[in-house]
Each structure stands twice: as structure tokens, then as C-alpha cells.
Specification:
The protein is mostly helical. The chain has helices at about 5-10, 15-25, 30-40, 40-60. It comes from bioreactor metagenome.
Length: about 60
């Protein structure tokens, strides 16, 4: 995978989506832990995470 393309795809996400992905994949937190930290439900974390990953895939 091209690191430059990934970096550009990540920049297309909004701040909340980037934060959720960082907490989930860089810090290894569960969706429940992320929901408590961000102040939204676990279901919202799941939806935002899926949407962010879909956006990244479309931009790669």
C-alpha cells in the first residue's frame, strides 16, 4: 500500500472519524472504550468507524 495515498485518504476524513480510527487502531481501544472517551454510543462509534474505513477504501 502506498503510504502517501493512505495519508491523503486519512486527510479526507473529518476530525471525529480520524480520532475514532486513531483510538481504535493505533491505541487498540475497544468500541466501548472509544464511545466513553468520545462521548457517543458504541453504535455510533461502529457506524462512524465503518464509514471512515469505506471512505479510505474509496480513496485508495
Amino acid at each position: 500500500m502506498d503510504h502517501i495515498a493512505l495519508k491523503e485518504a486519512l486527510h479526507r476524513l473529518n476530525d471525529r472519524e480520524r480520532r475514532i480510527l486513531a483510538l481504535r487502531f493505533y491505541e487498540g481501544k475497544t468500541q466501548m472504550e472509544v464511545s466513553a472517551e468520545v462521548g457517543i454510543s458504541q453504535a455510533q462509534v461502529s457506524r462512524l468507524e465503518k464509514g471512515a474505513i469505506d471512505t479510505i477504501r474509496k480513496n485508495l
